[in-house]
Specification:
502 residues, Rossmann fold, 25% strand, 2 domains, globular, alpha/beta, Jelly Rolls, seven-stranded mixed sheet
Length: 502
């Protein structure tokens, strides 16, 4: 497909490789993601729940060791520059750190992460491994670009394994993660792995790959990063009627049951994913020498190079209605892996404010039955919000004019009798901005949001839902914060006309 598209463009006189790739990436990321229907995307979003601890360990006495099969397909692993620095270290028995970053398949223990970690630790017994789990279920590469500095790069990894293929795989966000890793340390190796959804097994069987993965392959080519397609052996087994992609044990019979939901593999399915990674690592051995990874010009954008997340009390001012609580000692202890403390308020008008220079801000917080809505103020004016739905990156944009009050609602249908991590982003014109969040006096119709099938808990416990609490874990910025000590000097009395509403 790529070859045909290139030839068509060249026949029309277009000679710029950079422009061709950029057009392709924009096309892929704005196209309906292959085999990701609304029901599957809802499952992915709903999976976002509690945190895992950032560091994990492997007990070789308790874990089952996978045995990679003799499955062989040349394009299962594309080596490119490989992972030479990591392989040299483990071959020499040096200490290494391996970080996994992705969505729910990464966060869960046995979708592949624990199996491949056990395999490596058993194969290289003289190497001391440090393992990092930076998986956040139900999230994509946009949040990944904000998270990677705090959750991955502060651990100084030797190898970063990235998996967002079933979570939208927004190419610009992926490039932001890649570039941040290389900027942090030119000797850190990177490997992209591609999990799949059910309909994509047919694509692999026909010698094709999903469109959004083609977009990531263009990035991998540009940065000389190895990639592993996790679904090729699974596609082969399904074609031979030796694997059932989705079902239950009774329906599977003698076949391998991959999953019960069509997305998240059971342990047997995770073993197959891990086996593909193991085969890829074996293929990369000895094919390149340790080297510094160059940082070429961006393929899509360098905008995500400066994405980051910040502790709220480091960059923001809070009024007396807010307080800090330790998650470890609270009902939110399940989120301690992401937030050791959260800023909490529940009174109408409770305000926090900060300033930054950039074009995107947002919050990474905890949703639950009692959470409320936030009014958003930008440069001294309350703004109305509209969520973009164009592709896998879906920030809010500012609506100018008198369109009523549209607060940022922190309650959604996934908050039914449960707590969950969640995030939202708001896009602004590039520049210096003063931001304020204030708890709104308006309450969302939570019964309506939950819908007819989720009424039991809110009917039985209405008081639990009848409040407007905010649990703020991190502030997200695509840009740089303007610290409290210099805020007045840098911001002054700036009031851009774009936000005036009469």
């Amino acid at each position: 497909m790529l070859k045909i598209f290139y030839e068509d463009l060249y026949s029309n006189g277009m000679r710029s490789y950079q422009l061709i790739i950029t057009i392709l990436l924009l096309f892929f990321t704005m196209t309906d993601l292959s085999a990701q229907n609304t029901r599957e995307l809802d499952k992915i979003a709903a999976s976002q729940g509690a945190a895992s601890q950032l560091l994990f360990s492997v007990d070789l006495h308790k874990e089952e060791l996978i045995h990679p099969s003799d499955f062989e397909r040349d394009d299962e692993c594309i080596v490119r520059g490989g992972i030479p620095n990591f392989l040299a270290k483990i071959t020499d028995g040096q200490d290494v750190t391996v970080a996994f970053i992705g969505g729910s398949l990464t966060q869960a223990n046995y979708c592949y992460r624990m199996q491949i970690s056990t395999y490596l630790q058993a194969r290289y017994p003289s190497t001391k491994f440090k393992w990092v789990n930076a998986g956040v279920s139900g999230t994509g590469t946009d949040l990944g670009a904000f998270r990677i500095q705090e959750q991955v790069l502060t651990q100084h990894p030797d190898l970063v394994i990235i998996d967002f293929a079933v979570n939208g795989a927004y190419a610009a966000g992926m490039e932001g993660m890649i570039r941040q890793i290389i900027q942090h340390d030119h000797h850190t190796d990177i490997c992209l792995i591609y999990a799949i959804l059910g309909g994509q097994t047919k694509l692999y069987r026909n010698g094709k790959i999903p469109l959004h993965i083609e977009a990531l392959e263009a990035l991998a080519d540009h940065y000389r990063i190895p990639t592993v397609h996790l679904g090729m052996e699974i596609s082969h087994l399904e074609f031979q009627d030796k694997l059932l992609w989705k079902g239950d044990a009774q329906a599977a019979g003698e076949r391998i049951l991959f999953s019960t939901d069509g997305i998240h593999p059971l342990k047997a399915g995770g073993n197959l994913y891990a086996a593909a990674i193991a085969r890829g690592i074996d293929k990369m051995k000895g094919l390149s020498r340790p080297a510094s990874h160059p940082l070429p010009k961006p393929l899509v954008s360098s905008e995500w190079d400066i994405a980051g997340m910040y502790r709220p009390d480091d960059i923001a001012d809070f009024d007396v209605k807010w307080g800090a609580i330790s998650t470890k000692e609270s009902k939110l202890k399940a989120f301690n892996g992401w937030f050791d403390t959260v800023m909490v308020a529940g009174e109408e008008g409770a305000q926090c404010s900060f300033a930054f220079e950039g074009d995107i801000f947002g919050l990474f917080d905890i949703g639950g039955p009692e959470v409320g809505q936030l009014e958003v103020w930008v440069d001294g004016h309350r703004v109305n919000l509209h969520k973009l739905q164009s592709d896998s990156f879906q920030p809010y944009e500012i609506i100018t004019g008198d369109n009523g009050n549209t607060p940022l609602n922190r309650f959604n249908a996934y908050c039914n009798n449960r707590y969950r991590g969640q995030y939202d982003l708001i896009k602004l014109p590039q520049g210096k901005h003063e931001i304020s969040f204030r708890i709104s006096s308006l309450k969302a119709d939570k019964r309506l949001i939950l819908g007819p099938s989720q009424q039991e808990d809110i009917v039985q416990h209405p008081a639990k839902y009848d409040s407007s609490v905010i649990y703020l874990g991190r502030i997200l910025l695509r840009g740089k914060p303007i610290l409290k000590t210099t805020r007045k000097q840098e911001i002054g009395d700036m009031r851009p006309q774009i936000y005036r509403q009469g």
